[in-house]
């Protein structure tokens, strides 16, 4: 259907605690998916919310000494704040204590009871309160919950309950999975679902004795509806079913439903589709079971005290880098989808986050924008130059990669999509190095230099469009620095990714680094190990230096803090570098090939204990190491981002 709304859901959250970096994940990812589909020009309904009728929510309220309703009313807004802080823009927020939801849950219950899918019986079994789940006898060992993420004691529960006739759906579920190869993803979790269903499905108890919290069973208020049965129905409530037929028709079925791996198999891929089959409704197009985040190799848990909030991570990143908070939030969003293919487990560490920030964001993306804009400022008075030709290699890289990125994002392969975008950034940085606009300017080829810089601006513009679902604030800032080439609010994947849309002749402001690098202190020098005596070389020693002589060289990584031309010397730049211990001035003969502004922030290799020398009146304290290619100097840089002061051995 043409005007089908792209309908996307996250699990709804238990309101016993606000989200940490792990459980904020599905909602951050969903925001990326929603923004991507909006960018494709689709209408989107992106829904998240809170799961409030659980026993554990009532217990958390009791522990706080608050009436449950008051407790949930207090916590639910905290979720909305967390999402706002993470720049998550959902279209609807559902709370399962809302009247609109209670009405739909009772309607579903009634319909399924009327058709015989729900019946009354006595239930006895093992129940895990934190997971709100009944388990089979065979699944329990040592009286503990079999969910490896939980492993807390289970309780023996005996009650007269309503049952959902899940067993009747076993074959139909398997047929559905078989016939819809993309319905359950990733593939390895789909296989888990098939194994689970093939073990045999039992009817499921879907009510509890009413202890004052939960949605009452219609016409039998002594019982409340089991929280999972109630919670899954939220996906239906927000569509307006069954009253708002017009809305429901536009929205249903869900296009993508994201869920964590522990609630994927038995709830989202078994109970939920069986309920929909019972109601005679279409099944979701895709259910995706994502992996879990750990922190520095440890499971995230409140008792370990490592349940760090995403807001805190973003504030720390902003504080330590000097980037804006919005940019720091974007960097966290980027990190979380770039780190591992979506679906797999991942590990968070501060060092990992800073590594991505410094290398992918500051060195690659930030550098592309900064050096391009600073050269436009120096050579073209801050006005975007008119290109006289087309940088074909960049144009075709952008156009073909944009298609691949689109299909990767469509397929929820975020890390692959971002890798592809970064390959274009790398190509553009390499293009600048090879075309060397500073040399073209020296040679009087201003038009050629203009074409180079126009082209790299065009790449930056295309990159801003493509990264906007993941890093909306960064994209907006790049857009602004590129002189607002069109209305940012109306950017669109199909139209905005055509080459050459950047207007020339527009004045831009000077570049403002979006990602100031974070300096990690160099690790304390380890005590030098006793060097083994080198074997006496048997070769001619005249041209060789001894190991002791080599050891005298103090070669280390330094960061360029500022760079300017040495007056009256075409080839010389005067650099201030941070060598890990302090700042020093070094004169380098690289002015023909490097634009001073483009060097600031770069890590270089410095010979630190060279005797000082005066060059054109400036004292140089050390030497920058560079490769010599037919007289052209190409400065060396470390393969990975390492702190200033690191020794080169
Ligand atoms: N209320 C149920 C879902 C009902 S959906 C109809 C629930 N809530 S939850 O608050 O416990 O979890 C919300 C989401 O966070 C789930 O998708 C869960 O998988 C996810 N995560 C919880 N811890 C996580 C990590 N450490 N890492 C990644 N996701 C995590 O379950």
Notes on the protein architecture:
- By secondary structure, the chain is an alpha/beta fold.
- It is 41% helix and 18% strand.
- It has 21 helices and 26 strands.
- The strands form seven sheets. Strands 1, 2, 3, 4, 8, 13 and 14 form a seven-stranded parallel beta sheet that branches. A five-stranded antiparallel beta sheet has the order 20-19-18-21-24.
- A hairpin with a 7-residue loop joins β18 (555-565) and β19 (573-578).
- α2 packs across α3, α13 packs parallel to α15 (414-435) and α14 packs antiparallel against α15.
- The chain is elongated, with a radius of gyration of 30 Å.
- It starts with 5 loop residues before the first strand and ends in a 14-residue tail after the last strand.
- Mean pLDDT is 92; it is low at 523-542.
- 5'-O-[(L-methionyl)-sulphamoyl]adenosine binds next to β2, α1, α7 and β13.
Rg over C-alpha atoms, rounded to the nearest angstrom: 30 Å
- SS class: alpha/beta
**Ends distance:** 64 Å
The total strand number stands at 26
The major sheet is characterized as:
7 strands, parallel
Unreliable stretches covering 5 or more consecutive residues? 523-542
Shape, please?
elongated
* Average pLDDT figure: 92
Number of helices: 21
Helix content: 40-55%
Provide the list of bound ligands, each named once. Answer: 5'-O-[(L-methionyl)-sulphamoyl]adenosine
Beta content comes to 15-25%
């Amino acid at each position: 259907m043409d005007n089908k709304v792209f309908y996307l859901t996250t699990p709804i959250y238990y309101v016993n605690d606000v989200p940490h970096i792990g459980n904020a994940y599905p909602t951050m990812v969903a925001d990326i998916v929603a923004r991507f589909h909006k960018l494709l020009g689709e209408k989107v309904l992106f829904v998240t919310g809170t799961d409030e009728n659980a026993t554990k929510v009532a217990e958390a309220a009791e522990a706080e000494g608050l009436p449950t309703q008051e407790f949930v009313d207090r916590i639910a807004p905290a979720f909305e704040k967390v999402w706002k802080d993470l720049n998550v823009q959902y279209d609807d927020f559902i709370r399962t204590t809302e009247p609109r939801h209670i009405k739909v849950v009772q309607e579903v219950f009634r319909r399924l009871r009327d058709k015989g899918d729900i019946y009354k019986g006595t239930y006895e079994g093992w129940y895990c309160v934190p997971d709100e789940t009944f388990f089979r006898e065979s699944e329990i060992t040592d009286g503990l919950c079999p969910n490896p993420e939980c492993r807390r004691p289970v309780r023996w529960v005996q009650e007269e309950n309503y049952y959902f006739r899940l067993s009747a759906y076993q074959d139909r579920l398997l047929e559905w999975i078989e016939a819809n190869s993309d319905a359950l993803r990733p593939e390895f979790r789909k296989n888990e679902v098939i194994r689970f269903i093939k073990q045999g499905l039992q009817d499921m108890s879907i009510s509890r004795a009413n202890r004052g919290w939960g949605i009452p069973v219609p016409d039998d208020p002594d019982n409340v509806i089991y929280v999972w049965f109630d919670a899954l129905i939220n996906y239906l409530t927000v569509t307006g079913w069954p009253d708002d037929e017009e809305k429901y028709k536009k929205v249903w079925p869900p296009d993508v439903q994201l869920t964590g791996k522990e609630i994927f198999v038995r709830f989202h891929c078994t109970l939920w589709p069986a309920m929909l089959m019972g109601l005679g409704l279409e099944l979701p197009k895709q259910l995706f079971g994502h992996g879990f985040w750990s922190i520095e190799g440890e499971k995230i848990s409140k008792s370990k005290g490592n349940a760090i909030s995403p807001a805190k991570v973003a504030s720390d990143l902003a504080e330590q880098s000097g980037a804006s908070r919005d940019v720091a939030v974007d960097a966290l969003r980027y990190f979380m989808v770039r780190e591992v293919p979506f679906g797999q487990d991942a590990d968070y560490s501060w060092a990992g986050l800073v590594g991505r920030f410094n290398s992918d964001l500051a060195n690659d993306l930030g550098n592309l924008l900064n050096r391009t804009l600073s050269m436009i400022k120096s050579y073209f008075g801050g006005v975007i130059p008119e290109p006289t030709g087309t940088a074909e290699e960049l144009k075709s890289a952008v156009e073909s990669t944009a298609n691949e990125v689109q299909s990767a994002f469509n397929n929820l392969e975020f890390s692959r999509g971002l890798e592809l975008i970064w390959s274009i950034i790398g190509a553009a940085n390499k293009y600048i190095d090879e075309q060397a606009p500073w040399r073209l300017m020296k040679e009087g080829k201003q038009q050629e230099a203009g074409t180079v810089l126009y082209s790299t601006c065009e790449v930056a513009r295309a990159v801003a469009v493509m990264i906007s679902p993941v890093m909306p604030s960064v994209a907006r800032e790049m857009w602004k620095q590129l002189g607002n080439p069109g209305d940012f609010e109306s950017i669109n994947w199909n139209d905005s990714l055509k080459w050459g849309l950047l207007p020339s002749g527009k004045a831009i402001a000077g570049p403002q680094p979006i990602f100031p690098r974070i300096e990690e202190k160099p690790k304390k020098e380890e005590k030098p190990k006793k060097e083994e005596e080198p074997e006496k070389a048997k070769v001619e020693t005249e041209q060789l230096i001894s190991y002791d002589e080599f050891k005298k060289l103090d070669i280390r990584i330094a960061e360029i803090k500022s760079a300017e031309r040495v007056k009256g010397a075409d080839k010389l730049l005067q650099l201030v570098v941070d060598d890990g211990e302090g700042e020093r001035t070094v004169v380098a003969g690289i002015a023909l090939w490097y634009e001073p502004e483009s060097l600031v922030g770069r890590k270089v290799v410095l010979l630190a204990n060279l005797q000082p020398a005066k060059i054109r009146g400036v004292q140089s304290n050390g030497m920058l190491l560079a490769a010599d290619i037919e007289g052209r100097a190409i400065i060396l840089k470390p393969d990975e981002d390492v702190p200033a002061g690191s020794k080169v051995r």
